[in-house]
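Open question from group meeting: does this chain pack into something compact, or does most of it stay loose? Before anyone orders reagents, we agreed to write out a predicted structure and look at it together. Recording both the input and the output here so the notebook holds the full record.
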Amino acid sequence: MSGRQTVQSRLGSLYREVAKFGAVGGAGVLVNVGVFNLVRHSTGLQTVRASIIATAVSILFNYVGFRYFTYRDRDRSSRSKELGLFLGFSAIGLVIENAVLYVATYGFGWDSQLQSNFFKFAGIGVATLFRFWSYRTWVFKALPARELAEQAESILAEADADPDAAPHSRAAQ
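Structure tokens returned:
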């Protein structure tokens, strides 16, 4: 593969990853803002407390989406480590997201429904940049090429060993 094809392939892969991350993240934003408004107006909790609850709910929603949709092809060797890292980086994102809302609400006194939703959304945007970088770099790491090749070879070997289980294997051809 030429250098140009390699770059195009990597850019295409990154584009698909960003699109999947955006789809899950967009749904997570809807969950986050929806829960925020529901909790804030139905319970009477303070703005930032309602936001923290909403962010926690969206973190759980997003983990499922990222693990089983966006990064389903990534390394799965250590789920407990992955979950720990995800929750750790998500907690940092929670602080970033809610710091923006906190400063707007308590620093500037901007606490109307419109202002709270605007700054909630702004905080989500800032935290999303951090989350995208940290999740792809530390949490859902790509498998090294050698491990991918070994996985493919083991799948082919299993298919060759049991031709009834895999009718499209090389042994069945």
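Observations to bring back to the group:
Helices lie at 3-43, 47-70, 79-107, 113-139, 145-161.
Residues 169-173 have pLDDT under 50 and may be disordered.
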